[in-house]
């Protein structure tokens, strides 16, 4: 190459070389995590002593295998309901579609970083004003070509966009996990609410049958003049009131059954769950809470919030890179001829190679506004992540403290039920022997029914809180390996 050509070439490449030197500085701004709450050493409801220096930042483990956590309840009916819900629940279908959408956005962002190749065919007819004759002759021109374009992404703008899209896809995947866990918990809680209603209905129906037996006995005693009408009317009132309670429970159960059908993605008109017609004696399993750091690592909603924060930071980097130059390389090659028959002759070939280094100078404040908007979105994401962490810790604390108090309440109610049953049995014997009034017997039965229903309600609340605790723990209670190794 001659020196006359080398000098212009060096001048034309100077901006490119300077831009390449600055390209290494491109990166997303690091999020300011100083506002995040410190992870506690243990949950206050179940304090676990932890030696100093055993805490470390752990990566999200929302992808850890949770398995069929509901199997700890050993209920085949619940197992079947879970399978049906995971196959047909509409919330899961929407979350899966959003994940597919996010992954497509990632592929689109990645595609912008690759060279773009296209083909074109141009055909034109017009006058040739340069022919020097009047009138200008009419000519035809055909121009097939291949066009190649590539944006070099000197300052990482496209790379940051791809990184943001990847984080969005990961957040969508975590949200799918969160939705799946939510649906599973809702199905389990709806199922146990049905079982609680069945148990209550059974108690009320049994009490109603006992009232009716007593009413028949009282009516016979009234017929022979051994009992006053006032006592019989009081008993009839109690029978009607208890029957109204039973019908209210039937209505409540029907609504719960229909709600469960929706969770399964099935029509309420064709769904029915039979009453097992047996006493509900099951007890919820004990679930260890583990360490707060393990909970925050396992929870998919916390992981989704964290990745949304990182994606917002990457988009802030994209907005900041808009102030820097862009370098585009283009190339095209093809044929051009005024005679269609000669268009693909070698002599008709045409080609071009070009480069464009562009840098915005004045845009009326558009880039500044975009950067401020991206910064605001990053702050929103940071606040959302902080709120999600606080919510996760609060939910675990709520269920742990609730389960402890529910167990104490269940123990007290167990004693109350035993005493009420004994009192009812003694009152029934004394009433049949004429030693006490009917009011005394009714009071004893009301007290027994009230204690039994409270015991069933507390039992149902224990199952509800156990499921809520499992959900709050991220669908399990075994710390992932990353958390366990970081805590050593």
UniProtKB/TrEMBL annotation:
Any Pfam family the entry gives: OEP
Keywords linked to the UniProt accession: Coiled coil, Lipoprotein, Membrane, Palmitate, Signal, Transmembrane, Transmembrane beta strand
One term under GO cellular component: plasma membrane
Membrane topology recorded in Swiss-Prot or TrEMBL: Lipid-anchor
Compartment(s) where it occurs, according to its Swiss-Prot or TrEMBL record: Cell membrane
Signal sequence range: 1-30
Sections of the chain in a coiled coil: 82-112
GO MF terms, alphabetically ordered: efflux transmembrane transporter activity
InterPro entries tied to this protein: MdtP/NodT-like (IPR010131), OMP_efflux (IPR003423)
Family, similarity comment: Belongs to the outer membrane factor (OMF) (TC 1.B.17) family.
Entry protein name: Efflux transporter outer membrane subunit
Originating organism: Ideonella dechloratans
């Amino acid at each position: 190459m001659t020196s006359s050509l080398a000098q212009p070439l060096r001048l034309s490449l100077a901006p490119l070389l300077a831009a390449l030197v600055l390209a290494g500085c491109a990166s997303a701004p690091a999020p300011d995590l100083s506002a995040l709450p410190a992870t506690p050493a243990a949950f206050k409801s179940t304090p676990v002593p932890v030696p100093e220096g055993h805490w470390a930042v752990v990566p999200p483990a929302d992808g850890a295998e949770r398995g069929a956590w509901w199997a700890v309840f050993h209920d085949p009916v619940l197992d079947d309901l879970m399978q049906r819900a995971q196959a047909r629940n509409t919330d899961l279908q929407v979350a899966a579609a959003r994940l597919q959408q996010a992954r497509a956005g990632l592929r689109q962002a990645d595609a912008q970083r690759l060279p773009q190749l296209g083909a074109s065919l141009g055909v034109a007819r017009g006058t040739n004003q340069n022919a020097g004759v009047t009138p200008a002759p009419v000519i035809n021109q055909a121009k097939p070509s291949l066009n190649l374009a590539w944006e070099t992404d000197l300052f990482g703008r496209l790379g940051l966009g791809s990184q943001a899209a990847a984080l969005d896809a990961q957040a969508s995947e975590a949200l799918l996990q969160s939705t799946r866990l939510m649906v599973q918990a809702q199905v389990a809680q709806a199922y146990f609410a049905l079982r609680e209603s069945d148990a209550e209905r059974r108690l009320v129906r049994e009490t109603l049958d006992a009232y009716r037996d007593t009413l028949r006995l009282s009516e016979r005693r009234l017929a022979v003049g051994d009992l006053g009408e006032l006592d019989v009317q009081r008993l009839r009132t109690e029978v009607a009131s208890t029957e109204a309670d039973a019908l209210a429970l039937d209505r409540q159960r029907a609504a719960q059954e229909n709600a469960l059908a929706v969770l399964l993605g099935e029509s309420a008109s064709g769904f029915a769950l039979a009453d097992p017609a047996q006493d509900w004696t099951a007890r919820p399993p004990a679930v260890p809470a583990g360490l707060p750091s393990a909970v925050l690592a396992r929870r998919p909603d916390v992981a989704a919030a964290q990745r949304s924060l990182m994606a917002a930071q990457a988009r802030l980097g994209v907005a900041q890179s808009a102030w820097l130059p862009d370098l585009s390389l283009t190339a095209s090659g093809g044929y051009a001829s005024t005679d269609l028959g000669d268009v693909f002759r070698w002599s008709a070939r045409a080609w071009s190679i070009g480069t464009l280094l562009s840098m915005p100078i004045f845009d009326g404040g558009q880039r500044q506004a975009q950067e401020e908007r991206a910064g605001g979105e990053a702050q929103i994401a940071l606040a959302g992540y902080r709120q999600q962490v606080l919510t996760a810790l609060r939910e675990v604390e709520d269920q742990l403290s609730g389960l402890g108090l529910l167990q104490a309440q269940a123990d007290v109610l167990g004693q109350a039920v035993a005493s009420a049953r004994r009192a009812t049995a003694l009152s029934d014997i004394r009433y049949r022997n004429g030693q006490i009034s009917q009011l005394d017997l009714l009071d004893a039965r009301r007290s027994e029914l009230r204690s039994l229903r409270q015991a069933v309600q507390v039992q149902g609340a224990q199952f509800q809180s156990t499921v809520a605790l499992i959900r709050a723990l991220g669908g399990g209670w075994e710390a992932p390996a990353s958390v366990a190794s970081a805590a050593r």
